[in-house]
Every structure is written in structure tokens, then in C-alpha cells.
Write a structure and sequence with these properties.
The chain is of the alpha+beta class. It has 13 helices and 19 strands. The strands form five sheets. A seven-stranded antiparallel β-sheet has the order 12-18-17-16-15-14-13. A four-stranded antiparallel β-sheet has the order 5-4-3-6, with no helix packed on it. Strands 2-11-10 form a three-stranded antiparallel β-sheet, with no helix packed on it.
Amino acid sequence: MTDTLTDEQTASWTSRAGLGTGRIPITAYTSPEYYDREIERVWKRTWLKVGRTTQLAKPGDYFVKALPFANTSILVTRTREGEIKAFHNVCSHRCNKLAWNESGNARRLQCGFHGWTYGMDGALVSVPDEENFFEFDKAELGLTPVAVDTWESFVFINLAAEPPEPLHSYLGDLSDSLHGYPFEEMSREYRYSGVFNCNWKVARDAFYETYHVPVLHRYSFAGSFVSAKENPYCHNHYYSASKYHGKYSLYANPDYAPTPMEMLAFTVGGGMDSLMVKTDEERSFPPGLNPSRTADWSGDNNTIFPSSMITIFAGFFLWTEFWPLGVDKCIVELQQAMRPPKNASERWTHEVAASTLHFGLLEDISTLEHSQEVLASGAKSHMVLQDHEVLVRLAHHWNQQIAGPYPDPSAT
């Protein structure tokens, strides 16, 4: 038996993060006025992950990301010189959407309305019947740029005309601590998305803790590889807060006995192996992965403010995002990324891993709309958080630091 968790190891994570222990007003999830303030002060001024560099492998590659909360569409390109650029996906002539496809490769992009044509660097290069425009200068009519930067294999944008800080600074310790993990090698993705009738923070908070695992996941993960008699509530090994973001290391049951199908999947590898079977790859982990170097470890959850989470295992990772659509509506998107399979056996293992995740994800999202429905009743004025919900508290802390305190429920 390897080391198990003790009270000393897990006590007072909230105080260690420098956070208070007060309750969360339900107005965080129900106030239309506060939602509007969040959009302006948080969503339009923080760095948001919109894609991956693997989507821009060659010069001329591009992809489009719709951002309904900002009433815009973002066009991200790879120029001939290899630079990554981002623009509002709006033609300068009559403001038609320029790129209609989700992705592609092109030397130039032409508006489907009147034929104005732009280079992948955003410059306006061709205008039909140009001589009939007045005081016309193509150099002034390129696409409207958006701040863009990359971290590891991920593309981030910031909608502010002048972002408050560079991406590297925004990510804090996370920026360097995961360098060396093979993100870019994991280019095979399985994607899930859905629209839910709940506030984006209701969805985000559901994924930022493991207190729910023994109950909500009792038919899938709980009682197997993430909990044990010595750790029945799925207490995590480690928590940390770095600027706006947080991390916790997931517990692994050292005595879990995989089923015959799981053992077969572990044998051929390619995804499921890293959940419960230790691999040689763990010996070369970057310092930010399993930072406490705990033996009973399955993976790390890294929360990225305002509403992303990257869950990293030895052989694959998940990226989950929660996008606002309204005070009581949001989009949940999840990408499961693994190395491309080398053969049919590894391809089958991918399906086992994807199916396992899909079942657990359905359990996770089952509570979201129910929560929003009763939050709106006003029956409760506050939510109560425990110590192992510390990263939920951290996210609410920074939400209020940036967008202002939540409205007083008694005043509504």
C-alpha cells in the first residue's frame, strides 16, 4: 500500500490560498445586471483560449471561433511567413462575415458579398471597381486585428484593444511549469459540446471540484480508481493558487483492480493506460505536473480563469471550456486529446477512453439545469463551500475582484 491522505495533508487549503470562508451569494448566477458587467469587465478583457496551433499547421491555414457573448466571430490565420494572426471576422466594406467555413486553407480570403479580398495577414489586397470609391486607401481598410498569443500548443485571444497584461504574465506560474509535456504530439481530438440553460459559472463550478465524485459518479468513477476506503470523499493530494488560476492533483486508488476490458485497453495503450497504470513517461514530467510527486496520483486539474480547465494525465489531456450565452444559458465544450493511434488496437483504445469520458461527462452535466432552475426561485440566498471546493472559491474571488462584488441577495 502506498501513502494515503492524512488530515494534516489536506487541512486548510482555503486559508493557504489566502481566501476567506464566506458564502457565495446566489446573485452570482442569477443577476442580469451582474452578468452584463462580467461580459464587459471579465470576458472582453481576459485571455481566452480559442483553438490550437495544430489547427494552423501550414501557411494559409485558418479557423473561425464564434464568440456570441461579444457578438463577434474571430478569424485566426497562419501567414505565409508563419506568423499567427487574429482578426474580427468582418469585411471592411459592408460588414459581411468574411470567412463562412469553420476552418480551411487559402492564399487569400474573399468576401462572398462583393468580392473584397484580404491576405492572411489581414491586409486588403483587391477591391472590385475600386475607382468608383471616394477618397479610397486600401491600407486603411484591412481587417480589424485582435490581440493573439500562444502558450504550448494553444491559441489565446484578448478582445481588449490593449490587453491589461501579456498572456505569459496572465498565466502566472502555469506558463512555464508545464513546459515539456507533449501537448503538440496529442493532435487526435474527440470533441463534445452542448448548450445548457444555466449560468456559465454553474457549469464551471461543477467541474472545479471533486467533492461531487462519490455521489454523482458512483456508477462510473467513484469506488474505482479515484476513491478508496482510506479516501472515500475523493480528497485531492494537492491544491495551489497562482494568480487567477488554480491546480489540484487527483487521487488514484492504489488497490484498484482494472476490469478485463480495461486491462486489455491498458495493454495496447494510447489513452486509458495513464489513468490507472503507471508509465515510464511519468519519470520525465515537467515540475508543474504532479508537483508533490505523490505516488497515488492519477492526473492534475488546472483551472484557468475565467472558465477553462485543463486536465492532464500521463498519456492524454482534456480541455474544458464554459462560454456565456446569457445570464441563464451557456455552452460547454470539451476536447479530449491523445496521440494519433499507430494501429487498429490503439484506435480501439481511443474509443474505450472516449466512451468512458462520455459517460462521466453525461453525469457531470446532469445537474446543471436543475441547479439553475431552483437558484432562480430565491429559496436560498447563498451557497456554502467546503475546504475541498477551494478552486471554486478562488474563481469567485477573482470574478469579484475584476467585475466587482456580487449583488446583495436581500436587496433584489
